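[job 4417] fold queue: 2 targets
>>> target A
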Amino acid sequence: MVNEKYALWCEKAVQDPDLVKELEAMKNDPDAISDAFYKDLEFGTGGLRGVIGAGTNRMNIYTVGKASQGLAAYVNSVTADGKIAIAYDSRIKSDLFAKTAASVFAANGIRVYLYRELMPTPMLSYAVRALHCDAGVVVTASHNPSKYNGYKAYGPDGCQLGLEAAEKVLDVMNAVDPFEGVKTVDFQTALAQGDIVYIEQELIEQYLDAVMACRVAPETDLSALRVIYTPLHGSGNKPVRSILKRIGVTNVTVVPEQELPDGNFPTAPYPNPEIRQAFSCALSLANTVKPDLLLATDPDCDRVGIAVPEGEEYTLLSGNDVGALLLDFILARRTAAGTLPKKPLAVKTIVTTELCRKIAAKYHCELLDVLTGFKFIGEQITALEAAGEENRFIFGFEESYGYLGGSYVRDKDAVIASMLICEMVAYYKAQGKTLIEVLEGLYQEHGYYLCAQKSFTCEGESGMKQIAGMMESLRATPPKTLNGETVVRIDDYEKSVSFDAVNRTEKPITLPVSNVLAYYMESGASLIVRPSGTEPKIKLYIGAVGKTKADAEEGLAGIADCGTKLLGF
């Protein structure tokens, strides 16, 4: 079957010269052929994501065409006058894939709204709602290395596509021949006929206005704030700098070698603001600029990482650190200003720090847990909107550096996060405090809630089987102790069951089904095991609590070691 697919592609896949060369190059490499053709890229709630190249298991114009034909069929099944918005980032072939999708949608009688240049993922979510579209697509692989690209689909609410809709798209995709079954038109012809239209600057300004409306400390003077910013060769450069200028941050130094779009990411092989290497250029620049804050946004500008001064050095704060700081800052400032709504609600993912539960309780704010993935946070905002309670939402966040401080979009947004972080740093600077000092104060008040994450990469077909085997083994033989502590509760999100290991009782989990296992100890320590939905990885999320930082660090290291051994690494 693999060789038959390969032969078919050699015959038919002739529209992109890069694919022709790659197919020719792999003809004597059975392993390369197998990896490229052993399966089709699956369309799930996260859309598509994979290595760029030739094959059914790769991101190319043919797999993008199939996905677009499936999405077009879904939209046409729910409306006779469909509209779809499209955005793309700086990744290799992102613009080509965006135009490919636009051509397919137009051929299927759907009007297309396309950004003229690369734009952040949250601006696609905004465009879907503002233009009353039935769906949206953003071509991005977020913070993956340069060999990856992806195709994220959105529903009319601006959230990533739901499970039911994604299954309908997949059903159509599976039945479509990538060479004969995908409808398409010439892009320039469709543009001239008005079937494809460009999104104009007016909508971009409306988005920035919506971000500005979410300030929580507008009285704060930001003119003295010194910021180094890097878009990591991605789409954040213009919108982040625009919003910082609007709020009065005039002293911004952009990392010159990372300012312009470049899908090869020459200075950041892993363009992920979660890791220190992505900050290396900014940290070097900090030696001369001496900023109050370093900001880094990922290529599609939905995540932001920061570094702040600690003595003579600069310390990177984790997504959990920043989430806790922002939640406390927003609740404190809005309480002081009298703008906190009745029954305020914040939303976090199950793998995000429990420190936020203590912070929320202090301000009588409800804190809701959802599955990993920001679309689940977006769905909660949509539910509030349907109930006429949209104003209750004050903050949504996840440990993987995703934050949202308003309801104008339904996805994480590094533009508003950058604005709120700058406000927060300037506010505390005026009080003579650094973020390190503020975070220490939160720990002393609520306990040292420390978190860590470990990822293990398992590439290819064998890797997928390996990950599946790990999860199967854990379900068959769950651990009774971790790091010398008794496991008191096990949550199995695939079986939708929470098991009380002490009383031997079960209760249902009402969240959607997901392949996640969570283990909790009496001290509040935890270990969560989750295969990635977008990368060939299995992840451990580790949490520990202590009265002192040293106690929490010791617990964290012990649980991480236990988790690693559980997976067989």
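>>> target B
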Amino acid sequence: MTPGRFSLRGLLLLVWFAASFGGIYFARDLQTVVIGWPLGFWFAAQGGVLVFIAIVAVFAWLSNRSERHGAAAFDDQSYAVYKRRLHRSFAKYVVSLLGFLLLLALAEQLGLSKQWVGAIFLAATVALYAVIGIYSRTADADEYYVAGRRIPAFYNGMATAADWMSAASFISMAGGLYLQGFSGTGSQPGGLAYVLGWTGGFCLVALLVAPHLRKLGLYTIPDYFAARFGGHWPRRLAAMAAVICSFTYVVAQIYGVGLITSRLTGVHFEIGILLGLGGVLVCSFLGGMRAVTWTQVTQYVVLILAFLIPVSWLAYKQLGNPLAPWVYGQQLEKITQLENQLAASPSEQQVIQEYARRAREFELKLRNVEEALDSERKLLKERLRLLSEERADVEVIFAARRELAQLPKDPVSARETWTRAMQENLNRAKPLGGMPPHAQPFAGDPDGTPEERQAFDLSRRNFLALMFCLMVGTAGLPHLLTRFFTTPTVAETRTSVAWSLVFIALLYLAAPALAVLVKYEVMSNLAGMNFESLPPWMAQWAKVDSSLLSISDVNGDHRLQFSELRLGADLVMLATPEIGGLPYVVSGLVAAGGLAAALSTADGLLLTIGNALAHDLYFQGKSDRASVMRRVMLSKFALLVVALAAAYVAAQKPADILNLVSMSFSLAGAAFVPAMVLGIFWHKTSRVGVVVGMLAGVGVTVYYMAINAAPVRHLLGLQGSSGLWFGIQPISAGVFGVLAGFVVIVLLSLVTHAGRRDGPDQQNLI
């Protein structure tokens, strides 16, 4: 590495740190309103993302200028012809897709039913992905693992964006912003941390990891560990870590597939999972990375249109301007006024008091769980007996039986259920149903009482911790880094990272706008509506899953108060067209976009898991010609088995999408980043240090998540104490895992005198 390159990298990393952690740390002080925008909110929602794009683009441009010979080596005449052919095919696809949307919109106007619109969207998109998968089928190792290393930077950037913008980005991020506002609460960090974390991480990918790995000509991330450190255990641990974090991630994607497919077609959630899984397997099973790449390019166009059309429509409806990211700041002040009105509303206060009363009831039950459970069971049985004797309506008797059946079976499950219910009611026994003010950076008050100051400090600390985990996890996710193995040269890899962030930013700049516009729509139109006049889409979504949408007349006034409505984070984006009163064809497009986002990421993740199991664990990276066919076939078989296992776990609905995805980021950051970064930039990094450091990083992360999980704490009798370190929530466990990994690797490498190099010459890595 030349001194100039090192100086450029250091300068850009300094700018990255100031734009992310520095800007957020002082966000509460940046409350000046500029052109209708609170400066702190604008910088966290948009300004930081624009700075990150500039960092990655400047690094790619300046680095590639100094390596013109490397970029030109592959840019021969045949490759230029190949790219022109791709441009023509891509243009035809975009025009055809727009024509398809217009035809469906016209058909809806002429009377085509909603069921047919949804079915056509689902069948057409999945069929398109399947055709690409079948057309791109291959058994060649180079094509299967890295798409022949001939994907141009522009298209690889688009495929990476689709791979990256999973169900969490498309379905859940806007919902998380809707529920958590700027920064969430002390116990539920989030909000704009997702926007900054998932874009700022690409600066680390570009500056520290991707170009150096591409230079080695690898197939998988565990290949790097074998090449750099030698021996079997670095590769094995990297492969196992890749399986763990990718499996956690893919469960969230398949959950999203089931959610969308069931809503789009009306089938049961579990059947929806299997339908969507078929589309995933056709692409990744047959053609590997070659099929996945071109499928993801087509999926990106679908998902970005599906996101931008409804948010632009809402912006035009509310503000008369479709450029949502530029104009939605006008609604922030209106939302603040509506929040103040709702907080002072007598009807809302009645709802809050009722939730508080319910919380106290559960608290009383928890004082003697066995007695309370026995008493409640007797009361329900007696009520059912009286209803039967009085020959009450069948529906009333059925409801009583269902209530008895849903009663916890034993004191252990009763304690768990009632504790969860008590906490939920306590959370909703607050203004706005427990949601924080949307534009307020961090909970509490730095100038208030000691309790308020502590709440502010914890809220800001958790925001920074989550943002750190998302950024570092981005630089460690195997399925993302493998995408940059498919470009022809290192220079193309740098350019591809820049294109990736540009394509991702199109959605990430619009997501905060969508959250604000939907919140304004709900507060100004839905809140206060008579229950009999509620739109039918609310009942339809409640049937899919009550955790996505629930409404109840808590205060008995027959009007929907804002605190009586609970929207799940996984619903907000999918229901946006219906919330805004858009034609159903837009709802179908949004569902198809969410399906594309989930399928594209699931493709990449399943491919990564299958390759780790077959290529890295079973074959140990051996590349003799006799094993090539068997290696590819075993990768396909492993992919199929893992897909079915992930579908089973997703059917259990283990957690919401954002939490599952954030957990995988903490795991990936702790497992891979310390070892990769130190291995690239510090020649003394030793094999022993990396093996123990990876175990320490993953071990600390998993321990912190587990010890703060409610079932584990109950099992160990730890309910009365807090297992948090420095108040950091378990979703950000990677903070401690990454630190442990770096410390252990450095100390053990120094102790084992790692002056000798276990792998290739460091100049080849840097």
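[job 4417] complete. Note on B: Confidence is low (pLDDT under 50) at residues 757-766.
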